[in-house]
TrEMBL record:
Stated family: Belongs to the UPF0302 family.
The organism's place on the tree of life at top rank: Bacteria
Provenance organism: Planomicrobium okeanokoites
Descriptive protein name: UPF0302 protein ACFOEJ_10125
Signal peptide: none
Chain ranges of the IDEAL domain: 139-175
Pfam families: IDEAL (PF08858), UPF0302 (PF08864)
Upper taxonomic lineage: Bacteria, Bacillati, Bacillota, Bacilli, Bacillales
């Protein structure tokens, strides 16, 4: 993986992150500050999501996150011992490190998006399943919307046949609202 994010951008993000969030474990603050002082390590650090798939990864959580406070992954091993992982960082700064930070980031901040990289280790079937799930949700939502519209149109016809003006106006307003929502969503 080539370094597509500059060390300067990573430093700016880490500084912002440390000023904006409190960490569940103080060792995480030490590690992030150490990264700021070590350009070689920061150059080999990649900010990703789902870091547990990566061969050498670290996951840290802010106090606002519901995730576990800290995890370090190396090969098939996983530890919650931040001191061991810190020693690994110091001894192997030339190895790629994939870092996942769990913090409230909705909507994502531009600084975070500027350093976030695609995780090359996420299994392909995970990606496909996510895409398939989204596609299925979209198809289901479209089908449900079409069904509701058809049902309303049928009820409007029945109200017209029965000369029920009140029901006609009520159903027409409901249909208009559904169509307005679809238009706003860009459907």
């Amino acid at each position: 993986m080539t370094a597509s994010v500059s060390v300067g951008d990573k430093k700016q993000f880490v500084r912002w992150f440390l000023q904006s969030y409190k960490m569940k474990r103080r060792e995480c603050i030490w590690i992030l500050n150490y990264m700021l002082s070590n350009d070689e390590l920061l150059e080999k650090t990649h900010f990703v999501e789902e870091a547990h798939y990566c061969p050498r990864a670290m996951v840290m959580s802010s106090t606002e996150s519901k995730e576990l406070p800290f995890r370090f992954y190396k090969g098939n091993l996983m530890t919650a011992d931040a001191e061991k992982s810190f020693h690994d960082l110091r001894l192997n700064p030339e190895q790629d490190l994939y870092l996942q930070l769990n913090f409230p980031n909705r909507p994502p901040t531009p600084l975070y998006l500027s350093v976030l990289e695609e995780n090359p280790y996420i299994p392909l079937d995970e990606t496909i399943n996510e895409q398939d799930r989204k596609l299925a949700e979209d198809i289901l939502a479209d089908s449900l919307s079409s069904f509701q519209e058809e049902k309303l149109l049928k009820q409007i016809d029945e109200a017209l046949d029965a000369n029920d003006k009140e029901k006609f106006f009520e159903l027409s307003t409901l249909l208009h609202n559904i169509q307005a929502i679809k238009k706003m969503k860009g459907e």
